[in-house]
Amino acid sequence: MAHHSSPGPLPTPLSCDVLVVGAGPAGSTISALLAERGWNVHVLEKDPHPRFHIGESLLPQSLPILKQLGVLPEVEKIGIVKYGAEMISHRYGRTQMFYFSKAFDESQPYAFEVKRSEFDAILLKNAIAKGAQVHEGVRAGRVEFRPGTTSLVHAQDRGGKPLAWEARFVVDASGRDTFLSGQLGGKQRSQTHNSAAVFGHFEGVGRLPGKDEGNITAAWLDHGWCWMIPFKDGTTSVGVVCWPDYIKSRTTPLDQFLLDTLRQSPVVAERMRHAKLLTPVYAAANFSYRRDTMAGDGYLIVGDAFAFIDPVFSSGVHLALNSAVQGANVVEAHLRHSADYAQRLREFERMVRRGIKTFSWFIHRFTQPAFQSLFVSTRKPPKIERAVLSLLAGDVYAQKRARFPLFLFKVCYYTVFVLNWKENWAVCRRRKSGTSTTVTEVQDYAVKQPF
Description:
Elements (H helix, E strand, L loop, with lengths): L13 E8 L3 H12 L4 E5 L17 H7 L2 H7 L1 E3 L1 E6 L4 E6 L11 E3 L2 H15 L2 E4 L1 E7 L6 E7 L4 E11 L6 H6 L2 E3 L6 E8 L12 E6 L2 E7 L5 E7 L1 H5 L5 H9 L3 H6 L4 E2 L4 E3 L4 E3 L3 E2 L2 E3 L5 E2 L6 H21 L5 H24 L4 H7 L6 H11 L10 H17 L1 H13 L18
Parallel strand pairs: 1-2, 1-10, 2-7, 4-13, 10-20
Antiparallel strand pairs: 3-6, 4-5, 8-9, 9-10, 11-18, 12-15, 12-16, 12-17, 13-14, 14-15, 18-21, 19-20
C-alpha cells in the first residue's frame, strides 16, 4: 500500500535521470547498467543490506548476465556449484537427477547456490561502484507523474523525515512490495495458481555425494512440494510450498509445522534427521500475481514488482535479471528520446511475458500426478528430456530448439492426465479451489509495513 509522507514543508527535491525503487537483483542490475552508461541514477531501498531473502538457487542462463555485470568472480566465491536438480517422488518411489550439461545449450552446464543476503549485497555494491547513488533506509511513498516532464517522487527516511526526488524516469523494482501497484492499481492475483511457503536455514542436513553436493533437491509432498538448497558454508535452505487449505489448517508453531510437513517425504525426512534450525522460520503467502501493464509515461516495472509465479523452478531471480537488462535499454531509449523507444518497449514486454508464460505452464502443473510421473520417468525421449533441462536451466526466451520438444512434453502430459483422470482431476480441482483463498494465517516476510 502506498505510504504518504508526514505533513510538513516540502523538501527541496534531488534531481536525477532515473529513480529506482528497490535494490534487489532487478533494481541493482538496472541501476548498474544505466549508471555505467553515464546516467545519473538514484536508488531508494527501505531495508539495509544484508537482508534475508529466498530465491537462493540461480539458473545457468543467468550466468552470462552476471558476467556482463562484472560480478561473476565474486558470485563464484560465495556460491557452491550446482550442476543440476534432483527430483524426488515418494508417490512413484523414484528419484531423477537432471544435469544442465544435457540441455540444448551446452555452454552453461552449471549455476550456483547462494545466500541471497550475500548475492544481493554483491549486486548492490556493483551498482554503487558503477556510479549509482543508493539511499538505504528510505521508503518511497508516492509518485506525482507529470506527463511530458519530470516526475516528483515523495519518500521518507526511518526517522520520518520527508524526502523528494525529481526524476526524468522512475523504475519500480520493489519486488513483492509492488510499490507502483499500490498507487496505480492493476495488480491481479493469479486465477490459476496460489500457494504459500514456510522456510528457514538449517545445519546438519544430509547432502548428496560428490559433484552432486551443490545440486538443489525438490521433492513432492502430500500437500505441495519442498526444496533443499545447500550452501558453501555447510548450511542448507529448506522450505515447503503448500496448498492454501493445508497451511490454513496449521495448529502448531511454524517451525514444527515445517518439520512435520517435510516428513511427508521419507527421503527428505532421512536427510533432515540431524538437522538443527539456525534462523527464524519465515513464511510467504499468496505467492502468485501479475500486473496488467508494466510501463507507462515515464515509468517501467521490472522483476517481481510486475509478476511472481512460484519458486519451484527458481525462476524469480532469472526473470528479474533479464527484465532489468532489457529494461535498461528501454529506459535509455526514453531518456535519449530515441525513435525506437516504442519498439524497444514492445520487445521488452514480449520478452517478459514469454518468460513468465513458459515457466507458468510447468509450475502450475508441477504437483499433478501426471507431471510427477513424467518428470521422474526413465523413459523420456532424449529430445524431450533436453528440452525440459533447457527449461530448468532458464532457457525460456529463445527456445528455438526446445519449442517443439516442449510441445511434445505437453502432449504426453495431457495423455497421462486422461489415462489417470480421476486422480489428476482431484488434484487439479484442489489447485483451482485454492486460487480464491487468501492466506492470513502467516505474514509475508518480504512485504513490510510502512515505517
